[in-house]
Amino acid sequence: MRFLLTQGRKLSDFFLSWLVIALFAILTIDVLWGVFSRYILGAQTRWTDELATTLMVWVAMLGAALVYGEKGHLGVDYFVGKLDPAAQRVTEFAAHILVLIFAAVVMVYGGWIMVDRTLEANQLLPALGWKKGYGYSVVPLSGVFLVFYAIEGAVNSIVAATSPSSTGDN
Question: 110-158 pLDDT, tens per residue?
């Protein structure tokens, strides 16, 4: 199980990293084109703002999932640091379970409903002509990655708690 999680982790990290990099590069080019068209050509291209907004949401949501997987999010761990090591492990496990529940219920399930209803309503981004539901699809997609990373974190917490070196008997 742990081997599968590790291999899945490497694959998802690779995929997410390159996807975020590519989306950010497109976002940068889009914003630069918007500035160039406004100040050099005299009229900003109509679609640059919508594309920039959509790309920014995608970069933020997928980047947040990637950073959570790398344990890079800011945390207020002052009080957790004051606990004994066993309580710290329990707190870490509980945090992963809470993220798992939130990501599964709100982001994956709720996000899927949001995407489905938006696609059914046939709402469009006016300048791009794209269906808004496709832009919103990043919510359940990033939720799936968060669920995976939360499961991996919870399993790693359990393994660390049951390993001989974590008992404090050195």
Answer: 999 999 999 999 999 998 989 999 999 999 999 999 999 999 989 888 8
Rg (C-alpha) for the chain, rounded Å, is 20
Phi, psi of 29 (to 5 degrees): -65, -40
CA–CA distances in Å: residue 69 to residues 80, 85, 156: 20, 22, 12
Give the pTM.
Answer: 0.86
pLDDT tens digits, one per residue of 17-32: 999 999 999 999 999 9
**Given its phi and psi angles, is residue 124 left (phi above 0), alpha (psi -120 to 50 degrees) or beta?**
beta
- How far apart are the C-alpha atoms of 133 and 59, rounded to whole Å? 17
Q: What Å distances lie between residue 127 and 51, 117, 140, CA to CA?
A: 9, 21, 25
Judged by DSSP in three states, 124 sits in strand
**Residue written as tokens 């008997």?**
169
